[in-house]
Structure formats: structure tokens, C-alpha cells
Amino acid sequence: MDELAPIYATAGLITAYFLAAVARGRFDPFEPVWLFLVGYTHLYIIQPISYHEWAVSARGSELVLEANTRILWALGLFLLVYHSGIGGLVARMLPRPPVGWSRALVGGVAPPLVIWGLICAGIVLRAGDDADSVSAEESLFRSFPFVMLVAAIMLIVTGRASSNPSLFLPAGIAAGAGYVLIWMFNGKRSHSLVGVLATVCAWYITRSRRPSWPVLFATAATGVLVVGVAIGWRNDRDHERSVAGFVGFVGDFNPKTVLESLNLGEDDASDGRPVTHESEEYGGYLLMMDTVPGKSSYDGGASYLRVFSTFIPRIVWPTKPVFGRAQWIQAWIAGSELERKEDFTGPAIGLLGATQLNGGAEATVIVIVCLSIFVRTAYLYFRANAQSPWVQFWWSISYYNAWFMVVNDDPLVWFYYNWGFTTMPLLVLMWWGGKWAGVGSAGIAGEAGRISRPIAAS
């Protein structure tokens, strides 16, 4: 069991960090480090403990110990840089956000976005798993369901920023709740969970409040439940694929199945197939540790080029590659316990699996340092300008990405897979709309005019 010693040390570090924040009165549930640590706990504490016997059998005790040791020092490095003061220095150099917020712009933009999101959800529902049933135009059009949640947060921020009663707030809450329910019905766990996190965040930070511990526990329970229901419904074969069937499924839902979503369930080898956990993020991380560079090559960070290449249309660049994909596939082919082919499209490998593929321990140091500075800078910028409606909008629809940085194919997937082309353009639009509202007679300024420039240490 010596291989698990670094994992227990990692759990101890996270626990001590949390207790210290609570004891000092500095715990902020909307600080992204906590979602980063939630993802880290799931992938690099729960999974290593749950899958320990398989890991040692499949990859050997020496490699498992090396991988688990990296889990510990990578987290220590992240927290060290996070509190180094570098993020505060960078945040002070960023431009101040607009003090205004255009109600007229929100009123004109939000309803079409909600409708667009509903249409996207409808196309996804109608197509199901049959991608061939969707035309190229529909496939492109349905890539923007997230704009419905963006519109919901716009409406909530607008309603909460104004002292006058209006329909903005109830419309925003309805759109946010509808988004969560629709994507639970569509069996998409990430959409549903993000809907819960973003809506709760927008509700509280617009009044400079933090939820109580009962509310936090209720939010956590709700997040776990919507994930469990979405996954369970997606895999369910006992109910009709209809609203009535979904209601029946929810009524029959066994909360114990949530353990499977958290990788706390037991192995099931009753079908005679060999048990393997390489499709889980920790298993993918071990595969990368075992395979790269001995059996396949590093990608040299090529995957991060997708942050730019994603936004170049194929009509302009017909031969555009998916940067880093070839090395990812070759690693799976070379190291998998199962047969993998060139057209393999498999599971996420998590943050540390991605950094190993990038360039091993050295790449892990570079990426962890950059992520830590990025996350800390963003949070301190939010704290310094928290009364700006634009910042409230941006933070509510962004802070949860700290979780995606840990659990995906690489730490920037969230940007080029969804956020960059659904959320960023609207943030730019509202930035300029806020600039206009701040100097004109329309819009909301309120307490945003009292933003303090200095960033307090925390």
C-alpha cells in the first residue's frame, strides 16, 4: 500500500488547506481554487484509491508510485504559486471593467439567445446518438446550446443590479432552471452541473453575498444529483424516451447510483470481460505515464494551438489538423490494455495525463505554474471589481472552468470546445455595451462606480 502514501498526503494537504481557509474566515465558494480542488479530489484521490489494485496489476507498483508522487507535488506547486503574489501583480495591470450595464442591450439580446439555445437542445434531442441524421447545417447550429445559459446569467445580473422590480430576474431564473432540466433530459452532465453553479453564483455575487453552509451543502447535493440523474437517464433502457418516461425515471431513481458517477462503485466483471479502468481519467493518466515517451512521442504542447486554430473556419483552412490528436491516439494505441485503432475517440485523460503527454514532468511544472497564475489573476480581478455588473456576469459564467481544467483532455479544452465561441463574443459585446451605458443616460451604474482599484491580499 506504499503506492497510496502520496495520495493520502494529497488528501491531507487539501483538507488542511480547506480547514485553514474556514478558520481564517477566508473561504469563498466562488473562488475557483475550490472547484479545481474538487476535480483534483475526484481524479487524483478517489480514483487512485478506488482503482489501486487494478492500477498496480496493470501498470506495476513502481510506475503507480511515481504517478501518485507527481499528484502530490503538482498540487503543492499549484498552491505555492497561487499564493505567491504573482497573480495580484498581473491583475493590477489589467484594464478596468465598464461601470455601466445596458438593460436595453440585454433586453434585445437575451430573448433570441434563449430561443437559439432551445432550438439547439431540440436538435440534439431529435438526433440522439445518430449523428448521421443531422445535416451539416444543423450540426453547426446545434453547437451553441450554451448561449441559453449565458442569456440566463445576463438576465439575473440585470435584475439583481436594478432596484426597480422587473421581469429580468424571474426570466433569468426560469431560463437557468430550464437549461438544467433540458440538459438533464438530454443526458449531458456537464451542461446540467454548470447550469446549477453559474445560476447560484450569479444570484449571490450580484449582492456581494456568500451562501450559508446549509445552502452550500444543498448546492453540492443538487450538483451531484443532476450529474447522477443525467448519466443514469442517458444509460437507462427501462423507460420510454419521453417527458413522461423521464419523470418516471426520476421517480424510480436510486440515489445509490450516484456513487458510480463519483467512481465509488464496485467493479463489475460479471459479463466476463476483463476489468479495466483506463477509460477513467486516472487510468488515462497512468497510461500516458507508462507509454509516453517510451512507446510513443510527446505532443510538445501542440494541443494548445487549438485555442487559435479552432476559430479558423475550414472553408479558409480545409486541411486544418486537430493539433495534438495524432500523438494522443498513438499513445492509446501503444499503451492500451484493449485494441485501439486510428479512428479511436476515447475518454479524457485529465490534467496530469495531458501534461505528461505534453512533455513529462517538465511540462507538468510549466503548465501547473501557468494555470495557477491564470486562475489566481482572474479571481483577484473579480475581487477588485466585484461591484461591476459586467464582472458579475463574466465571473458567474466563467469561474467553474477551474473544474474543467482538471477533468478534461487538456486544461484548455473548455475554451476551444465551448466557451470561446459561445461566451467570449457575448462578453465582448456586453463590455462595449457597458462602456456606452456608463457614459450615457441608459443602463445601470449603481455601486459599480465605487469600484476600488487596489487588490487586497487574500
Helix-strand layout with pairing:
Elements: H1 5-23, H2 32-50, H3 52-59, H4 61-82, H5 86-92, H6 103-127, H7 136-141, H8 147-161, H9 168-185, H10 189-205, H11 213-235, H12 243-252, H13 258-261, H14 281-291, H15 306-309, H16 325-335, H17 350-384, H18 389-396, H19 401-407, H20 413-422, H21 424-439
Helix pairs in contact: 1-2, 1-4, 2-19, 3-4, 4-17, 5-17, 6-8, 6-9, 8-9, 8-10, 8-18, 9-10, 9-11, 10-11, 10-18, 14-16, 14-17, 17-19
Brief overview:
The protein is mostly helical. It contains 21 helices and no strands.
Written account of the structure:
64% of the residues lie in helices and 0% in strands. The chain is built from 21 helices and no strands. Helix 14 (281-291) packs across helix 16. The longest helix is centred in the C-terminal third of the chain and has 35 residues, at 350-384.
Please indicate the percent range of residues in DSSP E strands (runs of 2 or more): under 5%
**Helical content (DSSP H or I, runs of 4+):** 55-70%
Strand segment count? 0
Low-confidence stretches: 266-272, 446-458
N→C terminal distance: 38 Å
Shape descriptor reads globular
Total DSSP helices: 21
Question: Can you give keywords for this protein?
Answer:
458 residues; mainly alpha; 0% strand; disordered C terminus
